[in-house]
Amino acid sequence: MNFLAHIYLSGENELIKIGNFVADSVRGKQYLDYPLDIQKGIKLHREIDTYTDQHPIWRQTKKPLVPRYNHYAAVLVDMYYDHFLAQQWDTYCNIPLEVYAATFYESLERNYAVLPPKVQQFLPILLKENWLVLYQDIDGLKYILTKMDGRTKGISKMSYGTEELLLHYDRFSLDFQVFFEELQLHLKKFVHSTNFLSL
């Protein structure tokens, strides 16, 4: 799962959303340095990642990508799934994606001081280019993947990633729908069984 899914799966709490969003920039027990609700978001992010990486459907989507992209195949699947979430947004949320994204950007700006340095550096690009909405169409996704590929100096080959997406579009879309439903059910159980929100 990439940015959009992590934010969406955080519920309504602003700081839990932010924690889930910044979690990849927080290592080990560094999360304890953050406010409690941001800690919860980081823990939720890690639970999502653990569940996702082990899930047979997510692995099924990744399999045809591995020969060309090696370990970057996992990144591509996460990006594809964010694309499908954005494409099917009205199925999951009654707030238009453009409004949802703009509200989250405002939240990040309000809480800028608490963001990890890496996120602070990336934030102007995210806001200017509106990545959360760009995921919605193939050209937008290709643009983001090309930018990501540039950071690897072309080693990842992710700039070509929309080729496989288009080739397997219907199958990957179905993979996402089934997986995302199971992920949401898992997180409901996780939150309930751990008394997560009351921690």
What's the gist of this structure?
With 199 residues, the protein is mainly alpha-helical.
List the helices and strands in order.
Answer: HHHHHHHHHHHHH
Shape: globular
Low-confidence region ranges? none
Beta strands, count: 0
Helix content: over 70%
Indicate the mean pLDDT: 94
Could you say which structural class the secondary elements and strand pairing correspond to? Answer: mainly alpha
Q: Which strand-content bin applies to the residues?
A: under 5%
Give the distance, in angstroms, between the N- and C-terminal Cα atoms: 24 Å
Query: Biggest β-sheet, characterized?
Result: none
- Supply Rg: 16 Å
The total of helices stands at 13
Give an account of the 3D structure.
With 199 residues, the protein is an all-alpha fold. It is built from 13 helices and no strands. The protein has helices at 3-8, 14-22, 36-54, 56-62, 66-69, 73-87, 89-92, 97-110, 117-129, 131-134, 138-151, 161-167, 169-193. The chain is globular and about 45 Å long.
